[in-house]
Amino acid sequence: MATSQTWLLRPFQERSTQLFLGVLFAALVLVTFLHLFMPEDSALHVSAYTVTLLGKYLCYALLAVAVDLVWGYLGILSLGHGAFFALGGYAMGMYLMRQIGDRGVYGDPVLPDFMVFLNWQELPWYWQGFDMAWFAFIMVLLAPGLLALVFGFLAFRSRVTGVYLSIITQALTFALMLAFFRNEMGFGGNNGLTDFKDILGFDLRSDATRLGLFLATGIALAVGYVVCRAIVTSKLGRVSVACRDAEARTRFLGYRVERVQLFVFVVSAMLAGVAGALYVPQVGIINPSEFSPLFSIEIVVWVALGGRATLYGAVIGALLVNYAKTVFTGIMPDAWLFALGALFVLVTVFLPKGIAGLLQKRRQKDDDQPGAQEATA
Amino acid sequence: MSIFEQLANRDQVFEFLTPVASPVDVRHGPILYMEDVSVSFDGFKAINNLNLTIDDGELRCIIGPNGAGKTTMMDIITGKTRPDTGSVWFGSRHNLLRMNEPDIATLGIGRKFQKPTVFEALTVFENLELAMAADKRILPTLTAIMTAEYRDRIDEILEMIGLQALRDKPAGILSHGQKQWLEIGMLLMQKPRLLLVDEPVAGMTEQEMERTAELLTSLAGKQSVVVVEHDMGFVRSIARKVTVLHQGSVLAEGTMDQVSNDPDVIKVYLGEEA
């Protein structure tokens, strides 16, 4: 909407953002309360296991928001966002590895276990600095951001879009997966990085730390959502939509389309990196399987299911699909992929605008009756 | 040309030293001046010794049978096609043959293509907002604020193209004619000095045509407008001066009555229609 507010504050005036943040914070408070103050034998008690599981879902939700930003608003179907997620995760994993110190199996004060096992004598140059939290946290943003910058610069400058871009993003994440599988890369090969002990001095296995990570993820999701919302409600967001729908026309109006694409793509990659960084301490491991093309495609399914170009739809999609996945893989693990496929087909056929489209339709109906409740999130 | 390439070239005034925003010089009258322009594609002469002068504030119609070189001419003016020979000047200061497409667009030449392209997912207002002359780099666009002044300018154009009632409707629901007007409005938001309009009334109803004629004639004086059109009735209704192109060069020029009585014109063009 065309308001005269500063771009970063603009989302807070929107009803949908207020509602989203309200629901999110209410959920965070509720989970915290149920975890801390309900007796363990109560049916309402939320266990530390569940808190971590929810934290994992929230990481996926942030990742889905990042994908929706480039796919929904810019029309770039990235089938390689798992790569940025994993890079952020590896940056965090490297920090956590360095935090282990001499408590590893081999007791080397500097080298992580897998390096000792490989008979490496000293720390590779790219592992330097990761013992410092601030450095690692900057790398969480910088590593995916830089990859997106270089990759995007080359792709968008050559005006690669549409299916071709999707294919090369897929190739990108696949290539990275193969590279990270190699022991010589120095990222732990196919075992990845694991056996983490603590983060910022807090024991990773303690319930309090887990709750803290869950809350941090919730806040990261809120911040990421507001940043994305601020971009899409700005004039730049409308230029993005213009690039999506009529690229040549946008160029003719004097906008540098490739720079718009690059900017939004890099922001999205950084958000994916943050999601990955918060994911790793909660699941306790990062390995090359996060780079797998299949995972990146799954993210796209979440967004399609939730509804493109709404952002909150992406969150709903990620939460629902992953909850379904947890339930399903518990009951009959082999059927999950079939269920996911069926779900995707059903949504594409019957709900082309996803769950968010359904909500919007209902809201339009409600608008006819003044005072009706808005139905979102 | 990159700065380094320019520095290596010693006998030249460097492009980055010349003032960027030098105003278009129309003190001598013409805003567009094409002389002896020729271009051929694989031996076929699309434009053949074309000479054309458009005065500042003029409304000019260009007609001609298919393949007469109308679109190629527009391509040359907007920098899309480079001619083999000849010179093209915008005012008496800017050599268009040494500029690229975005620079020419920024300088003040707006072009409307045959097929209307508007941003269908955005509202009419937002379409005009994006077209508005402004700093179009990333960060200024991100932090851009809609001021009252901008809003007034957009509303002014909205009134001019007659789409006030549809201000907040998505452009996708507009009719074909309304999209054409919106696109002309978008060109006007860029504050062009010269407007090139390719077949604006193709596919329009009678009424829509009338409104378009009004719109284009109301622009003349403030902007120079060049209209390429097939529809003779429409050309008759707006034109003060008509140029007839044939096989890449000017066949006749004058008022509609003059050219339609010209024996050559009757032979090559109007004769076929009648």
UniProtKB/TrEMBL annotation, chain A:
Subcellular location: Cell inner membrane
InterPro entries: ABC_transp_permease, ABC_transptr_urea_perm_UrtC, LivM-like
Main subcellular localisation: membrane
Membrane topology, from the record: Multi-pass membrane protein
Pfam family, one: BPD_transp_2
UniProt KW keywords: Cell membrane, Membrane, Transmembrane, Transmembrane helix
Residues spanning the membrane: 19-38, 44-63, 70-92, 132-156, 163-181, 211-232, 260-279, 299-323, 335-355
UniProt cross-references to PANTHER family, sorted A to Z: HIGH-AFFINITY BRANCHED-CHAIN AMINO ACID TRANSPORT SYSTEM PERMEASE (PTHR30482), SLR1201 PROTEIN (PTHR30482:SF4)
Protein name, per record: Urea ABC transporter permease subunit UrtC
Native source organism of the sequence: Marinobacter daepoensis
From TrEMBL, chain B:
Family annotation (SMART domains): AAA
Gene3D superfamilies registered for this protein in UniProt: P-loop containing nucleotide triphosphate hydrolases
One Gene Ontology molecular-function label: ATP binding
Keywords, ordered alphabetically: ATP-binding, Nucleotide-binding, Transport
GO (cellular component) term, any one: plasma membrane
Pfam families: ABC_tran (PF00005), BCA_ABC_TP_C (PF12399)
Source organism superkingdom: Bacteria
CDD domains assigned: ABC_Mj1267_LivG_branched
Alphabetized InterPro entries for the sequence: AAA+_ATPase, ABC_AA/LPS_Transport, ABC_transporter-like_ATP-bd, ABC_transptr_urea_ATP-bd_UrtD, BCA_ABC_TP_C, P-loop_NTPase
Protein name, entry field: Urea ABC transporter, ATPase protein UrtD
Organismal lineage: Bacteria, Pseudomonadati, Pseudomonadota, Gammaproteobacteria, Pseudomonadales
